Each structure stands twice: as structure tokens, then as C-alpha cells.
Amino acid sequence: MYDVVVVGGGVVGCAVARRFVLEGAKVALLEKGADILSGASKGNSAILHTGFDAPTGSLELACMQAGYAEYMDIRARLRLPVLETGAVVAAWNEEELAKLPGIVQTAHANGVTDVRQIAPDEVLAREPRLSPHVLGGVLVPHEHVIDPWSAPLAYALQALVNGGEVRRNTVVLSGHFANGMWRLETNTGTVECTTVINCAGLYGDILDQRLTGEENFAIKPRKGQFVVFDKAAARHLRTILLPVPTERTKGIVITPTAFGNLLVGPTAEEQDSRDHAAVDEETLRMLVDKAVELVPSLEGMGVTAVYAGVRPATERKEYRVRHETARNYIVLGGIRSTGLTAALGLARHAWKLYARMHERLTNPIWPQAPRLAEHCPRDWQTPGYGEIVCHCEMVTQREIEVTLTGPLPAQDYNGLKRRTRAGMGRCQGFYCNARVAEMTAGRFANPLAVGGTHG
Amino acid sequence: MVDVAIIGGGPAGIAAALTLKARGVRHVAILERESVLGGVPRHCGHPPFGLREFKRLLTGPSYARRLAAAAEAAGVKILLRHSVTALKPGGRLEVATPEGLVTLNARRVLLATGAREAPRSARLVGGDRPLGVLNTGALQAYVHLHGLVPFTSPVVVGTELVGLSALATCRSHGIHPVAVVEAGSRAVARWPLGLFPRLLRIPTYYNAGIDEIIGHGRVEAVRLRDGREIACDGVLLTGRFLPEASLARLSHLAVDGRSGGPEVDQYGRCSDDAYFAAGNLLRPIETAGWSFREGGAIADYVADDLAGGLPAAGDEITLVAGEGVKFVVPQRLSRVAPLRGKLQLRVERPISGQLRVSSEEAVLYKRRISTRPERRILVELGEMKPPGEAKRLLVEIVS
């Protein structure tokens, strides 16, 4: 019997589970995938947003700013990185240039008062490799980059080591609320609790329907493809380069990553499938061309990785947050690209909506996130690591072993990659894939090796 | 302080070490990031290796073991699990070891970090991203180093020599490729090797490419550009080698965007004259035997240089890859007479015409050529005399 069951182990669910555990609630986090972060949270642009361009007065803005502040407050204790890049919204034509003052105005209205318009020469002084065709920009000094996987992992770990439960491979099939209590039927058994928090992301509407029998909102999956350039590209751009947004999307971003690469994306492609995140060559080439157009020195730069994520957009732009007090049910739905920033803020918001009191943990344990950011100390810099398994990303044997045997161990290859970066470098496993197959033998339901050479 | 630090313990690096020791250079160290010496041949469980070096027909792993034993016997300092993390001006290396970080100073550094195949991402192959999409190098590590198989019925992409090597590896380990897919109109490998897939009765599709990889969790099928769908449980991406040049790229050294390797002169000397480079790092791709000889030849220049016998860097002629030419190695020529050594070229597409090296209006070298991508093309430097004022030589194929 739990106080709270959080459904969905994406960044929002992990942050919510953490918050409720810290507040003293008895919490279970249910995730249908083999690992946390296997839905929308596995593919995003990893930006910690100031909220400068969010709708003024919105819940989204409030959660982003609360989330940003809490991230900065807790990050040292969880050993989470921040790459202080700043961002420039660049205008490439007169129409875009005309929109810049409005962007500054919104930013100031949103309390992000250090945002200012800058002239083309100041843009180029900051980023000399940018195309000289830039007509001007808006500088957002505190828009930064984080590790999009270690952050939510650290939230889930903190929930776990302080008494929360994390159940993976667990799908909620139905739920019934009676006498102040939920009975959730799952593929791994019945779970009882007083409150359910729906953080099911791309499946948020389906879960909502299963629990309430109503159609309150509809997820409209929106795919985004990304291209990651080699580490040599990182010296070509130090600032997040944002486009002037259109009505529909924030557009294609070029940004440094915490891992020392340069990322371009996402596209915004409506599709029916919630979990089919395919890439296509034409779009990937378009992204490469776009990056070269804006940063011409990237011509010929090698590509390290390509990926796609699906974000849980809905038929409306705003977050779909709902609290049904009559049946102890909270929905945090329609959380799109700002979710990485807003998650901690959303978790506080959910706690406020919940409005019950538990005995707050006075001295919680602060687990340590993996050390994956390129600008921070890495594991290989500390002796005793055994061997380097992934040479491109300098991933050690020790890191992989901890990931396989520690709390919340990786249960599939993607989970291992997100926790260690093994296989995520320029050779994409040419050198380490077989060694990783050996190290993970017997641990994954979907193993790297399908058998041995002798039978 | 060592006299020469060699980064990479494959055929080129080991050959260089042996040559340097034979030339009487005292402190020669090989820094190898793996736990054993030998490099890529360690995974290639088939002949022919070692014909020139050891006068024997060897498999890759036994060739690699012999190389390692020779280096040890010659008194080369072998530093395993040493990962060089940064190249600094003048021959200072930052190195990660399991015992901690160290800085190593070398009078000369030889880069011999080899090459690897382009992964799926660099080829921009579309579709899902399931398990089972590998390069030949990874497959061979599965079967030869770890006794594992990553799939049982893959589609094999590419018909370079390494693709045929991949087919051989599959056949000897109970893996049954269901198709071979080649982008060109015929096999890249020379006749009769290109007939290999047909001899194995594996359907081969030319002028074809993978449009989409399909599969949740694992590969289930691929869809080709013509719409044909082939059921399979893996995709083996072969060939399309890239120099493993990331250390050089992230350093102060000049890198050639065309070859993908560091820029060198005819002595293998980089833009910082404390650094030299040899082997497949210079260009994709040559055989182990070629890399071995090249490592030895460049080590000879390194030994000359240590004894003050190499022309100073500085007064140089730049080589420019022109029409039809994918890359030229070396990229610079130290202005000496007579020139020695060879230019190595590759082409971008199947091409016939006159291969020409010229300075302004003067044609210094020409010959008829009909060739295809990945084929070795050599030009004897001794056959050309650049005019004294020449700043650049254009290498092109005029159809």
C-alpha cells in the first residue's frame, strides 16, 4: 500500500517520485519500459531553459523557472553538470530581425531581465564561425546545457535510495478508485495506493482513459530527428544557437552537448506512432546542411550519432495538468521539450496539488550521478578503473560494472549507454560493442549477443 | 623522456618500433590503449597475413602475436592500457592509465592509430535503431575475441575486401548472410574476389542501398531503396574506412579533410615537426602488410631526423587534390632534389582519363588511368622535378 503511485519513468515521473519521497510519502514509480527514460525523455536537446520565450504567466513558465532554480540548487549534491553556454536567438532575414524586440520584451515580462538584443558584430564576436549573414540576435546569458539522462537518473536514484520503489517492465492495465483508494491492475500484479500521478508522457492520454474512462486530452506524437557531430565540432560553436520561433515549433537548434559534441535538431514531424522514432536519410542530410549553412566551418565534419525522439504534444500548446481531488488523481500531461527543465518544478507543483502532509525526510541520502560531462572530472581520471572499454568516450570497466550491479541497474543496452556513454562515441561500438556484449551477458532480456560461436 | 613514443600497437606502430630499435634508437615506447598489442589483425581470423614480414602465410591473430613477440624481443617498451588523451606541441603526451594520469615527453611522436569502418550514423542510414547493426570490426571482435555471435542471418552491406572478409567470418561461425547489398554497379573488390558472394550463393543486389532498418529491440528486416523488404536479424556494415584521427583532430596538428588523416610531408612529418604519422591513419585503407612497410619506412625518417639528417620543415610544396581525386597523401613535399617516395591517391568514383600532376602550366607527370574507388594508385615522386619556385602541385584526372 503506497501513498502515491507515479506512472511513467520519464524525466517528469522521476522528478515527481523524488519530490514525494523527500516529502515523506511512500512512493512507487511504475515504468512500462525495460528501463527509465525509454520514452520521450530519451531524445531531447538537453537544454536547461530560462523560460525567456515561454508564454508569460503560464504554468509551463512557472515550472520551468522553479525547475531551473532547483536544478542549480541540488546539482552539486547529486553531482550533476551544467555547461554554461548561454544562447543566441539569431535572425537570418528581415522578418526574423523584426521579431527580436518582441522576444526581448517577452523575456523581460517573464523575469529573465538579462536578455538583450545584440548587433550582428556582437553575435559574430561571440561566435566567429557563424555565417556572416546573421542580421542580429537576442542574447540569453543563462540558457545552459545539461546531461539529459544523468539528471532524471539521479532523481530516480534519490527516490530509490530514500525508500521509494522503482518497478520497471510494469504496465498499468486498469485502475479503480473506491473508498479513498486506488487499485491498479498491472502486468506484474495489483498495486494499491491513495493517489495516482499520471506522468505517462506519450501514453498519458491512454492511461488517463484507463483510469477515468474519459477522453480528457489526446497525445499528438511529434517526432524530432537529431544529428550529433564529432567532438572536433565542439570548438566551432560555444553558444546554443536558436532560431526565431514560428507559431508551431521552436525550430532547429544547434547546441553544444554536455558530452563535448555539437547537436543539431530537432525536426517537428507529426505522426501517429507513439514509440516509433525512426530517422530518415533525407531529413538527416537536411539537418547537416542546415548546420553547415549557419556554421560554414562544419563542412565535412564527421557525424557521431543520429537519433530521433517523440515528444508528447497534445491538441493544445499548454501543459495538460489536472487534479481530480474527488479521486486523488493528478495528471501531468503534454509535457514537451521543456520537460527536462520543468520536471523539478512540475514535481513541486504536483506536491502542492496533493496537499497532504507526511513526515518530511530530515536527512535524505544524496546519490551521485554518473560523471559523464566532458568539462567535469571523469571516472578515467581516477586510478583503479581497470581498463578503458569504450575508447571514444573513455568509459571505464569500473563505470560499466557499477552500472550493471548498483542501484537501478541498466536493463538494456540503451540504458547502459545513457548511464555510461559506452558505444555513444564516434565509432558507435566498432571497438567496444563485443566487449560490452561479454560484460552484459545474461543481464539483458534483449541481449547484445544472440549466442556463442560453439553452439 | 623517451626518444620516440609510438601511439598505436598495430602493424604500422610495431614495424616502426622494430626499425627504430634496429637503427639504434635507445628509448622507444609503444602506447597501446588495448590490453594486448596487435591492432586490427587480432580480429581477422583468416589469412593472408605475414607473407612479407615473416615469410609465412598466417591468420590475423597469429600474425598479431608474432608482431607483439618481435617488439618485445627487440627491447621496445610496451605500455598497454595506455590511452593517450591529448597531443601537445613539441611531443608532450597526456596519457590515462589504470594507475593514474601521466604526462610523457618524447623527442618524436609517431601516430599510428589506424582506421575503422564508418558506423551506421556516419552513413546516415534511416529507420529504427535496434540492436544488431554492426561493422565488420565489431563482428570479428565478437567471434574471435569473445566467442559470441551478434546475429545469425544478417544483410551485409558493401563489397570491399573487408566485406568479403566479413562473409568468410560469418561462414566459419554459423552465421548465414541473407543478402549482400552494394551501392555501386559491381563489386568493389577486384575480380575474382568480387565473385565470392555469388560462390556462396548469397543474393547480391547492386546499385542498391538500405533505405530503412526495421525492428523493435532487434533488427527484423531492411527495406532497400527499390522497396524490396528483406527479413534479417542484423545489418553488417562493411568498409567505408575512416582514419582513427580523433586525437589529431582535437590537437594542434593540421588534418586533411579529404584523407581524414593528419597532413604529412613525404617523410610522414606532421605540421608540428615533433610528430610523424604512418599506417592507415594516413588514409583509408591499405593492407596490414602495406602498413607494416610504411611504418618501417617512416621510422627510418624518424631515426634520420633524430640524428639531424632530415631537411628542416618549412620550405614546402602543397599538393592539391583536383578533379576526380579524392585525396593525395602526402599533402606537402619538403623541397629537396631528387624527390623520393610515392604519392598515394584514391578516386571518388569510377573514372578513366589522364592522371596528371602539374605546377601552373607545366605538366610534371602524366599517365593513362582507369580505376575505381578504394583502388590503390601510386605516383613515383622520383619521376617528377617541380620547378624551384613551385608553391603547389595540382593532382587531377583529366577525362
Automatic annotation (TrEMBL), chain B:
Chain ranges passing through the membrane: none
Signal peptide range in chain numbering: none
SUPFAM superfamilies: FAD/NAD(P)-binding domain
Oxidoreductase as UniProt keyword: yes
Domain FAD/NAD(P)-binding intervals: 3-288
Keyword Oxidoreductase: yes
UniProt GO MF annotations: oxidoreductase activity
The name this protein goes by in its record: NADPH-dependent 2,4-dienoyl-CoA reductase/sulfur reductase-like enzyme
Organism: Acidocella aromatica
